[in-house]
Amino acid sequence: MIFIVSDLHFSDDTTATNIDPDAFKIMQNEILTTYENRVAESLTIVLLGDILDLVRTDYWFGKNFDERPWNGTLHDLTAMNTNVSCENGYRDILKRILKRPSTKAFFDALTNITATVNVSKIVYILGNHDRVFNNFMSLRDDLSAATKIPFVFANSFSNGDHSVQARHGHEWDVNC
Is the pLDDT of residue 138 over 90? Predict the structure, then answer.
């Protein structure tokens, strides 16, 4: 069985409101009930991009000009600021997001599901609002350590047994 969710856009709440944490109890119950009803042997969970939104934040307004992601010395391929303070800024934003009740409820639900049924893997496909996980490997380590979930990070997901090919889709948007 494959469960796919995308675009939750968990933020640090400075510019957006997160989903009600109770929604993830419903999600957890739906997944477990479906797993049981279908007599599934295993479950793959696919987080299909923009689960965490490290872009929608007021965080950078309090930083020096050269520390912001879009200023300073930009990497030729990624157009990201190469200053270590930029990486540390994203790490701070991630910590703030992970403290939010909604985010905590979501990852707690994933942990509960993993403890209840045979979850083969949890794949985190990166989208345009969480693409910095491709730029800074420390963010991947921080997320896995904080949630205690061994994510498989990728840019797409394929499963021939279920005839599934999944991408976040932002690469087909002319503005991304």
Answer: yes
Query: How far apart are alpha carbons 47 and 39 in whole angstroms?
Result: 23
User: Would you say 10 and 52 are in contact if contact means Cβ atoms under 8 Å apart?
Assistant: yes
Cross-strand bridge partners of residue 93: none
pLDDT at 169 exceeding the cut of 90: no
Residues 6+ apart with CB under 8 A from 11: 18, 53, 56, 57, 97, 100
User: Hey, what are 36's tokens?
Assistant: 């049981």
- CA-nearest of 93, 144, 127 to 5 is 127
Report the Cα 30 to chain-centroid distance in Å.
21
DSSP secondary structure, 55-103, as one string: SS-SGGGGS-GGGSTTSSSB-TTT--B--HHHHHHHHHHHHHHHTSHHH
State mean pLDDT over 46-56.
Answer: 95
**Averaged pLDDT of the chain:** 93
pLDDT number for residue 79: 84
